[in-house]
Amino acid sequence: MNQFLGQHILSVKQFDIDAINQIFDVADKMQRYAKRQARTRVLEGAILGNLFFEPSTRTRVSFGTAFNLLGGSVRETTGLSSSALAKGESLYDTARVLSGYSDVIAMRHPEIGSVAEFAKGSRVPCINGGDGANEHPTQALLDLYTIKKELQFHGKSIDGLHIAMVGDLKYGRTVHSLAKLLCLYKNVRFTFISPPELGMPQEIMDMITNHGHQLNLQHSIEGQFDADICYQTRVQEERFPSKDEADKDRGKFRLNNAIYTQHFESKTVIMHPLPRDSRADANELDNDLNRNPNRAIFRQTDNGVLVRMALFALALGVENLMEEYETPVPWHYADK
Ligand code: CP
Questions:
Q1: 200 lines ligand 1 (CB under 6 A)
Q2: Which atom, in ligand 1's list, is nearest to the CA of 274?
Q3: pLDDT tens for residues 143-155?
């Protein structure tokens, strides 16, 4: 049964293990289209309203790419100032209007709860592409999909995972959503490494302990971590009260080859939701790790297309029809 048909996707709280497995099974089927080994026109004629009221590169473009790869068309609105929200129109009214022009909507907005508010007025499914510091459910799914694939490579499963999350855990919505999703699995060890003022919200730490998982808090990268995954994050300057406040924490938690080699195991997988801040005063994930095969950051971004294709297919009920609408690829495609 497809529980996503016609449904909004607003929070990771909507998912259980069966739902996640269903999304990942469909995502696996998308690989051949994402790699251009075949085309499918299954969503030909369908329109994605891609509304990004906050900066984005990979979420916005991968939502659009995912929809195009299924044969659909994309209409974009970017920036608050270029929409009638800047004239005082409510999210509800905006949703009533734009859902009349679309079959599905993906949306990012700087305010917590904004996408859920928008969804109340929408006549079509809405997918949360990030609402302020709250949640980023599709990023959490692509992160989890990546973790599953990376662990499979090492002969492991998500149950029993040890993940170290590093940096700005207060404002980083990707770590909030990912930590909540991981609570669904068994015997997960969480190590949170952050300055005290940028710690993981208490509500999420309570969720972790209430589910019986192990939690270890550190304020610096010290000692040895037998972590399967090191998930590094950027200082989310845009959510700090001021740039001066962000400056105090910027550059405190860097991961480079020397730190990785000293504190992590040689097989620890390196993840980051991106963008990484590569400016000299931040540089939380150094380029000297670029050649490390455990650096999975661009496998994450590739997986984002697969997971978003799966969500569109499920929300629009075409998850079993892709092959029926398949055509060959006439152009030379790179083996990516
Ligand atoms: N990971 C992520 O959300 O990236 P963007 O801000 O570029 O969409």
A1: no
A2: 1
A3: 999 999 999 999 9
